[in-house]
Design brief:
With 108 residues, this protein is mostly helical. It has five helices and no strands. Helix 2 runs antiparallel to helix 3 (59-71), helix 3 packs antiparallel against helix 4 and helix 4 packs antiparallel against helix 5. It is elongated.
Length: 108
């Protein structure tokens, strides 16, 4: 009997992605993926572009996605993209903001 849950999309939230779990790509494969990811991004298909950029380990694309998610008021997704891109300045700024929100809640 097949597992019904295996056909469901993953639950929203953080998905652990390590560099060990990503395939090793040649320079040509990576360039092709990045072009495809940019094409998807320009079409507004952000979720698909995100998967491609993560697979290709394309930091600039992940930062652009983070900025787009930030504009859409999706701060956790924005943070996740900045974190995966290795953009420490943006990640740390968002951590400070989140810590400030928690501090405010605790004071109430």
């Amino acid at each position: 009997m097949a597992n019904v849950n295996s056909k469901l999309p993953p639950a929203p939230g953080f998905i652990k992605v390590s560099s060990d779990s990503l395939p090793q790509l040649s320079a040509q494969q990576r360039a092709t993926l990045i072009r495809k990811g940019n094409e998807l991004y320009n079409q507004g298909k952000l979720a698909e572009a995100q998967r491609v950029f993560i697979t290709a380990r394309y930091g600039d694309g992940l930062v652009r996605l983070g900025e787009q998610y930030h504009k859409q008021r999706k701060p956790l997704e924005a943070f996740r993209m900045f974190w995966q891109a290795g953009d420490n300045a943006r990640s740390e700024a968002m951590i400070e903001k989140m810590a400030g929100v928690v501090r405010h809640w605790l004071q109430e």
